[in-house]
Amino acid sequence: MSEGHDPLLEELLEGKHRALARTISKVENRAPGYRDLVSALSAHTGGAQVIGITGSPGAGKSTLVDKLAETYRDRGETVGVIAIDPSSPFTGGAVLGDRIRMASTVGDMDVFVRSMSARGTLGGLSTATADAVKAMDAFGKDKIIIETVGAGQNEIDIVRTADTVAVLVPPGSGDAVQTLKAGILEIADVFVVNKADREGADRTVQELLEMIELGDGDGFASVGAGHHGAEGMTGTDGWSDGREPNEATTRDEADQATWTPPVVETVATKAVGVEQFIDELAAHRTHLERSGTLADRRRLRYAEEIRTLLREDVNGLVEAQLAESGGVEGLAEAVRTGDTDPYTIAGDALEPVEACLEKLDTGGRAAVSRDP
Q: What's the number of domains the chain is made of?
């Protein structure tokens, strides 16, 4: 498709916020032509830093995102915010669409806030959300913040869309860390204990630090107590040896350094700790770039996006084909009566797909099989 023939794309690239809003609506609603539009957008992406903000409900994510956006604007950077909200059981749209807790940047056209529905998967990011990130990136936003609903294990989906993930943990009576599911904790690049002026915050911080020291999963580095600063925190930039990288830091040193998630204390309602939080986000971005991890993360993200699109498309094609022959309900009845079984049905339905793949296999590779 020629970009010159799409006035919506042209207006978006010219920096018109109304075009950005219309583009996101088009991709969210899967309106006709949205795929061509997203394909054209892809050539203009890659410049934004994508930050994921997640955590349990009540942690103060919206308030912190509001202050984060305000501080970025004070630094002269433009911001896009995508708020993944619970889906309405009636319309499928975002329930918290007014975003009443994000008021500091109202009227600032350089902070674009868009609520999107989780589309029935609480905490999950729909494919449309990834497309909305592309739209904001192509528009020229410097920072894109994705705030999720914070509903549980499915929060790990945010990893596939964000370069840096911050997990908010509310202060508790000592059980806050243990009650969070491990899958959420393991995705954190930065931990934030928000509402740090409340009782139990110090204990929550200490539990997080102990968890980080003991952790040896993909998201953690095993570090000794001596690697923390005077306040029991990691170095200001999250490097595992506590040092600050500088211009003399070589690529080899960066490759060998392991990122240790820092723990930041904030009081979002008073904008306390927000500057330190931003510094940690910037430090993690520097680490990703110097270690080559940023390219790895984006490669994995695109691979998952391809898989997701393939699953959606193949499922749609098969469902349409089955509908012409009586639908899944009729096949289910045949299974119930013992005339066939689910595996035979699935195999028969996928035979045309396999035949097409075999025709495309011009490089002499083995034909795709359903068997692992």
A: 2
